[in-house]
Design brief:
By secondary structure, this protein is of the alpha/beta class. The protein is about 35% helix and about 15% strand.
Length: about 270
């Protein structure tokens, strides 16, 4: 009589994930990706991360004090496409556990006090509506009032169409706030562009940093490359609108991998404030 077959042990689910980069697509150990802060160990592709995770990996532990959380979205225009805008807001809040796409507040980076802000692409594509504009502006005003450095991480599909002109007005509002900030040399503004940074966010506060950093491979622009290519009816250069392309042309100052971002920000702040 032959020996009975042993039952193969079930492999725990969730141990592996597929890199989302079209150029890679390899199966990678999820724990390795997490240890590298959402960066593929095979190709260096930077996964999108939430605003809360961004604050966690950038700021000193237990130093973050949120600002503007009482400002909440409203469906002022009573906008309806396939479903009411108010219903979509509720769905986004449930999905992300956040009240809006912008997380701002005060914190510290290696003991240096800063005002920090990050957009969350998981909430309406990080789009800028009234609340995002108000929270970003409140962050800028906090930096002005307390003479603190300002660091804003952008990850956005642009202005939020469901809020119409009220959304577009945030471009002027945030830009005017940044102009007030720049009158104070003790409050340097570092803008960090992540994938993607597009539309009205690119055309306003994201492009106004005293120093503009970007994560590797980030898509950065106003209109997307497909829209531009269709409109102009021409082929675009290789790497068009990617961080590396824009670095070569002087739009951004430096590309910094996510695993080095916290150290680089601290180094820049020490240089600016001493």
């Amino acid at each position: 009589m032959g020996l009975p077959f042993r039952k193969k042990k079930d492999m725990p689910s969730g141990l592996w994930m597929k890199c989302r980069s079209a150029a890679c697509g390899k199966m990678v150990y999820r724990k390795q990706v997490e240890e590298r802060l959402g960066v593929c160990p095979e190709c260096g592709f930077h996964e999108k991360i939430s605003a809360a995770r961004r604050a966690e990996i950038t700021l000193d532990p237990d130093s973050f004090k949120p600002l503007g959380e009482e400002v909440l979205p409203k469906d002022v225009l009573e906008f309806i496409d396939r479903e009411p805008y108010g219903q979509k807001i509720a769905q986004a809040q449930k999905k992300t556990g956040r009240s809006e796409a912008a997380l701002v507040g005060a914190g510290e980076i290696k003991g240096i006090r800063v005002v920090f802000g990050s957009l969350d692409f998981g909430f309406f594509g990080g789009s800028m509506g009234q609340v995002v504009g108000e929270r970003v502006t409140s962050a800028v005003e906090k930096a002005v009032e307390e003479e603190l450095p300002l660091i804003l991480f952008s990850s956005s599909g642009g202005a939020r169409m469901q809020e119409g002109a009220l959304s577009l007005m945030q471009m002027a509002k945030t830009s005017a706030a940044i102009a007030r900030l720049k009158r104070n040399p003790l409050s340097p503004y570092i803008s960090v562009l992540t994938d993607p940074t597009t539309g009205g966010v690119t055309a306003s506060f994201a492009a106004l940093g005293d120093l503009i950093l970007a994560e590797p491979g980030a898509l950065i622009g106003f209109a997307g490359p497909r829209v531009i290519q269709t409109t102009l009816r021409t082929d675009l250069p290789e790497g068009f609108q990617r961080a590396e392309f824009l670095l070569d042309r002087g739009f951004i100052d430096r590309i910094v991998p996510r695993t080095e971002m916290r150290d680089e920000l601290a180094r820049i702040l020490e240089y600016c404030l001493n």
